[in-house]
Protein 1
Amino acid sequence: MPIRRIYILSLFLYLLYSLWCFIHFGLEITDSDQSLMWQAALDISQGKVYVPLFYGQAYNSMAEAWLAAPLVWAGVPACRAVPLITWLMGITPVLIAQWMAVRRSKYGAAVFILLFAALLPDSFVQTCQMSRGFVQGVFFTSIGAGILLAGRKSHWIAGTGVFFILFGLGQNPNAIFLLAPVVFSTNLRRISWKQGVAGICGLLLAVSFFVFAQYWYRLHPQNLIHVKSGLFDWSGQILISQLPKSNAILRTVFPGGVFGLVILLALSLWWFAGQRRTQLAFIFLIIAVFFSMGSTKTTEASDNVFFGYSRFYLALPLALLFLVSGSNRSIKIPNIPFYLLALPVFLFFAFRSFQFRTHSNLQEINKAYIPLMVEKISTVKSDCEKAKDSAQKYGAKGIVVGGHYLLELFSCGCNALVPDYPAVMRPSYERRPWLYKDYENLIPGKVIFLELWQKDSAVFKKFTGIKRDIRGAAFILETGTLNFPKVADSLVGKKAH
């Protein structure tokens, strides 16, 4: 049948398109926060587990690093393994949604899901490839949604679905919009007491992990740089101030922004006529999206995709795809020769691939404000190699990152990019306080100090040495018998541990 052949073609082209985007973005460009995930994958692959959640904060997690750790252990560089896992996590919700349609023989719906997923803005695709915890929530929650919406009778399977949903929401609450297709598709009267008990067990298991994590951080506050996320700080005043920006915000994850969402709502009310639960789910999503704009966290964004609004709303278009996959109505495809359908589908994916490549230009991305460093991975690797070569040339056994715009790209990223990199710390903003203990017996004798803002006289007043260039000012300093942490703290004017 032509419809099945079109589905197979659409699935193949979607995977090819997604792989193209990954190669030209996920494997090309990174930022200083993603290098933390690389470092975590390296640590975990070596059996070193320091904290339950993301380095330096009591929210988000290192799930991407945990899943990438086996690959790193097997020899895949962390700077490749982690982005690969993130990419797979990012496309999983789409694959689950289309699979749910196919298992009900709704091939037209599956084709629509794949085409619509490819139509989503470039900023959505780019955000789904950033290894910063953005996709962890939608990944786990979509697995749970797929399990529950598949309609399995086993109570333990239902309990597993509840666990994944709650575990995903705990990873990143941006997945909350995926609750709409689950909640509005569930008939509470049909839930057996066994399924209810299993669901409660799944809930308790997921919640217990995050309760433990918060308790652990209360006992170890030295591991916190960011104390709270601000996600649940809601204000009507913020909501009013954000509403004028709503079109710009939604345009990052949905074609046409507010206008496109309103058109889709109108179409859904017509298309799903008679399916009251599905209609209510669409209405709920619209209300929830605008209500969420009152969160303090949604103000922490700019027009730069690496600090964009899209990271808050990744689940919105995915929730719509799940609603389509669960619909009782069929999307008909004209019964015409296969090639007449295949040609426009192929041209659509080709156009989107070209469009994405054009919009993934680093110079264009860096035009908008961002509070972290974005750079090509190849460029960072070259800088790291230069720093390592300089350390070997001058006999420096440690590198201190001070006021330098490469941030964690130098202090964490270089470990994943260059083998046998020297000991390195960023004492003014170090997310890994255990380094103070790890390096307490390291007497470097000489260190390289990467610093752009301190005057030369201020640096040489602390230690004698020479000045060279490694992506900006680099001081080669004689540090005597001081251990590495004390040297690092003194260089940035921080009280020694």
Protein 2
Amino acid sequence: MLKLMRKSTVVQLLVLVAAMVLLWGRAVVHPVPMEEVEGSGLLYGLLQSWLGALPRLSVVLAALLVLAEGMGFNLLLSRVGLVGKDSLLPALLFIVVSSAPAAALSPAVLVNGLLVLYVQQALLRGTLLTIPTGKVCSATALLGVASLVYLPAAAFLLSYLLVVTIYRLYSWRDWAALLLGLLAPYVLVVAVLYLTGDVATWWERTLGEFSQLGLHFSAADLWPAVGRVVLVALAVYSLIVASRRMNENPMAWQKNAQVVIACFVGAVALWVGTALFPPDARYLAVAFTLTGTQMLTVKPTYTAGRKRRQWLPEVLMLTLIIAALLC
């Protein structure tokens, strides 16, 4: 598999198409309606009301969104030098993780897309080692929109507080922009709901969604649980490998990598906040796109003229795909 991702762009695109068919083909052939998700926000509820009676359309839209998000994120990471310009391996990893389980348009698909846009706003450009105040506002605004799709996604604000530390955004203007961006989507929503007289209904529904969050597990969830636990274990291992390679690169590269990896913290905070077991590994897609690429492209070590553990990346990639299919 990994050898194919070192071939020409055409071959890599064919691998991506094969992965999409493998992960989404069954859902397209046998579509299921968009499900009621505990903790879903106003925006997801609107999409569900529009697409609830069109399950195949919602599945196709979800698959296209995942593909577009993976390709767009791959392009973004290559532009800032975090991954090689001729590799589509990051897109493959994003697709595999964010597609587990691939059933219908879900909050995870939408939130991951918003996280890609958020990272795009938070990454450095050129040699400047900080980001403009305007981008601080737009980045947190995207996190605010994500929480309107899935309420616990507000936990990703923790990842942005790490970005504040990474870039040392300590001026009052930056903090004002952070709060303004985070609150702007809510102010807009409340204004629209006030005009339609639905503010009280929305508030009661939001409190009801939070009250229903909790531990739900049955025997039917066993194999999906195994798959998700394996995905999380791979993500943790990839984080360790990536952290060991951080000091090998320039300061701007390190800061950009830390911004992406900070999304790992947001995903963990989301699991804790919702008491989900096993954790929904799909929210690791953004962070794992970078750390997984670092893990799978690490150069094999040599001992007495022989390559050691050169088979390990292939085994890890195969394990990743099997775990995604189990979910």
Protein 3
Amino acid sequence: MSLSVPRANVYDIRSLKKIPQFKYFLDTNILKFVFAKTIANTRTYQSTHYPTFFKSLLLQKVLRFTYTQNLLELFAVIDKAETELKGLNLKEYRFNNLE
């Protein structure tokens, strides 16, 4: 007996002219390249294509979703990157920036 596994449609976001009308779940990586560009590796294709894809979703009024856990993970990634940029450990950074 074989199980049928649903197949996902795979699209190359670099070449989409019109976004298919699906519900899109935005993971932490997409959110990082859209909202935290200063800590994302800017030499990767994601730094160009993820923000463009996100903007297309907005312009075409396509439904977008994310999960609270993704936002928490994004905030943790931003927090960690900012402390490393300032040369502090996380406890020092939080203590010194309570204002």
